Amino acid sequence: MTTQLVWLITGCSSGFGQEFVSQILARGDLVIATSRNVNKIRHLEQPGVSLQQLDVTDSQESLNETISKAISIHGRVDVLVNNAGYIVVGSWEDLRYEDFLAQFETNVFGVIKVTRAVLPHLRKHQSSTLVFISSRSGWYGDPFCGAYAGSKFALEGIVESLRWEVEPFGIRTLLIDPGRFRTPFLFSGGNLTRAESRVADYRQAYQRFLDAIAREDGNQPGDVRKGVGVIVDLVRKEGLAKDKEVPFRVPLGTDCYETIEEECEKTLSTLRHWESVIKATDY
């Protein structure tokens, strides 16, 4: 693929979003980089990069206007990367309803609203790509990560459904499941919100969990540069994706591979050992 693409990316202030900008420019493409606070991405501004304020928790009407402005910059958008997100941790009993709601507002409903705003343009364009950044947590719910894992499990389902709806219009859909990558997603980047432990029964286990992620913060096994490089290859169908059929769902990272493999094997084992019970419920 040699055509110059226009990419619209949410959540560009750090991590994957920031790396996307660098690598997309290196491929000769154009980027519309967005963030809730545009001042946090001023350092990304250069030829080929346009900046746009975008908060995925805004209303659908507001986001429609924001996306229209973004599209007007180059007259089109070829690739949408839904990258913005954060994580809230805590036990079910310690997390408030509002904490669950806020997690879904950004990680699920924000993705829905941004994508809905872009879809009418992409349907007319007839050749475009939607990229959704999910997570290993869309396959496995770690303790004290119920709100985050729930949002990613939800994302997996709605994106898989969307895939079949938009495929007839020439729109490709990529669902990316990164494992633990070395981004400022945890304590160091302010993208983690933690509930205070008010229930004594959970306190010791919760503190061990917080200590573990604090130790890993900045030491995650995944290389962001390599991960983003794979995604850009998949979108542009070059490099490792040249002359290959690109799958819909792509895990990234050894830890994610191992988790998904284990989950699939456990599911197959359940089906094999409980087949008679499972099928016995039919008329």
TrEMBL record:
PROSITE patterns referenced in this protein's UniProt entry, alphabetically: ADH_SHORT (PS00061)
SUPFAM superfamilies on file: NAD(P)-binding Rossmann-fold domains (SSF51735)
Record has Disulfide bond as a keyword: no
PANTHER family cross-referenced by the UniProt entry: SHORT CHAIN DEHYDROGENASE, SHORT-CHAIN DEHYDROGENASE_REDUCTASE FAMILY PROTEIN
GO molecular function: oxidoreductase activity
Family to which this protein belongs: Belongs to the short-chain dehydrogenases/reductases (SDR) family.
Gene3D superfamilies referenced in this protein's UniProt entry, alphabetically: NAD(P)-binding Rossmann-like Domain (3.40.50.720)
UniProt protein name: Uncharacterized protein
Alphabetical UniProt keywords: NADP, Oxidoreductase
